[in-house]
Amino acid sequence: MLTESKNKRKENPLNEAIGKDVQKFFRLLELHQDLREPFIQELCSKTKCKQIFNINYPVLIPILSGKEGKINGYKRYYSEPYNFNGKLYMLVNHWFVSNKSHFSKWQRIVLPIA
After folding, report:
1. Fewer Cβ neighbours under 10 Å: the N or C end of the chain?
2. What's the predicted TM-score (pTM) here?
3. What is the rounded CA–CA span in Å between residue 84 and residue 28?
4. DSSP collapsed to 3 states, 80-94
5. Of residues 19, 17, 15, 37, the one with CA closest to residue 27
6. How far apart are the first and last CA of the chain?
7. What is the per-residue pLDDT across 14-68, written as a single tens digit (0 to 9) for each?
8. How far apart are CA 87 and CA 33, in angstroms?
């Protein structure tokens, strides 16, 4: 029963849509270099990301060795890197509809005009 529920979450096209929205927003932040260091530090913290987005992984992880992106053998990060303040990061790909309101609230904090 629990496995069936998890599979339905993965197959939900709305989950894919939130992931694409997140990627687009982070590309805009990258393009304009609008993501300040305090926000980056929060996004690299698993604890903070749980509080902010209700997500179980750090939203960003720094690229250090080229082996990043997998957690417990599962690919949890998009392979295309993001450049913030001259450092490369990977963005978590584990977004669900339940994270959308949290992400939208954070967007308004980061960019009040978003």
Report:
1. N
2. 0.81
3. 11
4. CCEEECCEEEEEECC
5. 19
6. 39
7. 667 889 999 999 999 999 887 889 999 999 999 999 999 999 999 999 998 555 6
8. 11
